[in-house]
Q: What sequence folds into this?
């Protein structure tokens, strides 16, 4: 309980300041803007409530892109980490490519993927998977490589097959590292989804934020951002929950 | 547990081979190097079945490497190593149970599953493996700690679980790499007494690597003193009263003290 108290208090304070600044039109005056362009937290909350159906529909689209993308990245990432750990040649060959995959500018690749795969969910899942792949793969591989060589010697002496060595020593050693990668992945996944939607989409929170820009629906934009943050928070919360259940020895 | 009788098996398996019939471990002109670094220089050693041999040497002299070579975790650069007439690394690996320097209990398993690790690896299901390991917990002074995680155990208990894990593998040869080095002096003395008792009731061929001369002379039948790197055997002593029931009396006995002085002298001379 106490752990939540401090961040909640800080958040409340920031919201209060924001509310005050927006209501007195201090920010709008400072930036020389129309007041409706600087919505207060209560106006955002109102927008959130009044547009709940629209926001929910679009949030559902984006959530699906995020979850599928993470899932895809998880499967491919863990799979390639295991393969790269198993075969040194493969690691030497593929590791630079994994790093290079992270340098691909999403903003540039997203429109190309839209051209290739259309306006549907596929390019979004690919983009989300692309941004999540790197932290998952690198952390899983680091975890597998952090295995104590003496533990492997011990297992060999105790008649363990390669498969038994993997499941009884290497995989559990790598698990905490894998969760570190996952936590990074679930936080950046919503950002990837928004970028992907900006490149071309007919639905989703990113798409809504973009179209709201044209109509100066600033309060609703903030509402969309709040939902995106909530999705990231819930995903990381779930990840931590699963981690605590699985990695019990820490 | 596998009920093997290592001694008789060796006799049966090795008619007419070199050395005495009951020879369990035989090293002939073993040399080893890591790159250009010569770590082991021509070691000849023979250990009979159910004999406990101590390898004592200065830190970093290559005694742990020697142990790994015997266990089949490595192959020597030159020379031959036979364990129970098995010369190939795989054959040696099958006959030796290695206990590494740190206890290396797996933190994700409770004590009982750590102890039963070898049985599980050998294909036994969890339930019978736990039953077999659990049956030995009382003898190892671990009753009630079956479900405890390694982090919840004391240093001495962890070492006993590690030793139980080694013993339960059912191998004729136990290879112990400084098993008590991480323990405080009192616990170490207790564990030595405890290991002596365990070996009195359940004799095994043991290769014990240690830098503690007293520990080696108390626990072993024979002690080989190794020189600084590259390791070779500079002296071989037989212990006056191996694994005596009264440790305190044994280690203060004049014969023991004399043997200890001799070993220490050899160690000093070999370190130069």
A:
């Amino acid at each position: 309980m106490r752990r939540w108290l401090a961040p909640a208090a800080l958040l409340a304070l920031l919201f209060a300041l924001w509310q005050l600044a927006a209501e007195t039109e201090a920010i709008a005056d400072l930036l020389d803007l129309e007041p409706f362009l600087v919505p207060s937290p209560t106006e955002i909350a109102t927008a959130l409530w009044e547009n709940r159906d629209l926001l929910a529909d679009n949030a559902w689209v984006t959530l699906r892109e995020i979850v599928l993308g993470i899932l895809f990245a998880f499967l491919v990432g863990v799979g390639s980490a295991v393969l790269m750990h198993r075969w040194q040649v493969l690691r030497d060959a593929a590791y630079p490519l994994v790093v290079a995959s992270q340098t691909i500018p999403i903003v540039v690749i997203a429109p190309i993927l839209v051209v290739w795969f259309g306006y549907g969910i596929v390019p979004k899942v690919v983009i989300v998977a692309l941004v999540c792949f790197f932290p998952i793969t690198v952390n899983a591989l680091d975890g597998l490589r952090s295995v104590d060589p003496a533990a492997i010697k011990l297992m060999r002496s105790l008649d363990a097959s390669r498969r038994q060595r993997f499941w009884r020593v290497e995989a559990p050693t790598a698990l905490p590292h894998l969760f570190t990668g996952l936590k990074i992945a679930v936080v950046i996944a919503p950002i990837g989804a928004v970028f992907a939607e900006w490149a071309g989409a007919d639905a989703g929170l990113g798409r809504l934020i973009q179209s709201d820009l044209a109509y100066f629906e600033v309060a609703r934009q903030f509402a969309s951002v709040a939902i995106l943050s909530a999705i990231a928070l819930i995903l990381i919360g779930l990840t931590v929950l699963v981690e605590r259940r699985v990695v019990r020895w820490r | 547990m596998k009920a093997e009788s290592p001694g008789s098996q060796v006799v049966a398996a090795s008619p007419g081979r070199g050395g005495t019939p009951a020879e369990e471990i035989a090293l002939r002109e073993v040399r080893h190097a890591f790159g250009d670094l010569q770590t082991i220089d021509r070691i000849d050693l023979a250990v009979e079945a159910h004999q406990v041999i101590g390898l004592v040497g200065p830190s970093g002299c290559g005694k742990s490497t020697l142990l790994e070579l015997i266990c089949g975790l490595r192959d020597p650069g030159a020379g031959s190593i036979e364990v129970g007439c098995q010369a190939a690394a795989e054959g040696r690996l099958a006959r030796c149970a290695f206990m590494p320097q740190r206890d290396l209990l797996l933190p994700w398993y409770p004590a009982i599953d750590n102890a039963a690790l070898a049985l599980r690896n050998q294909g036994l299901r969890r339930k019978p493996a736990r039953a077999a390991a659990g049956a030995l917990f009382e003898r190892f002074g671990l009753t009630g700690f079956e479900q405890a995680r390694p982090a919840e155990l004391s240093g001495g208990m962890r070492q006993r679980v590690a030793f139980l894990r080694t013993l339960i593998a059912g191998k004729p040869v136990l290879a112990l790499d400084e098993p008590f080095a991480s323990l405080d002096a009192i616990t170490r003395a207790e564990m030595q007494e405890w290991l002596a008792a365990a070996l009195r009731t359940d004799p095994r061929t043991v290769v014990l690597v240690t830098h503690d001369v007293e520990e080696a002379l108390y626990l072993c039948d024979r002690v080989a003193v190794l020189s600084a790197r590259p390791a070779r055997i500079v002296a071989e002593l037989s212990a006056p009263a191996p694994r005596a029931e009264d440790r305190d009396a044994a280690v203060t006995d004049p014969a023991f003290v004399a043997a200890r002085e001799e070993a220490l002298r050899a160690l000093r001379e070999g370190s130069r």
In short: Strands of chain B lie at 23-34, 37-48, 52-56, 78-83, 96-99, 173-177, 205-210, 222-226, 233-238.
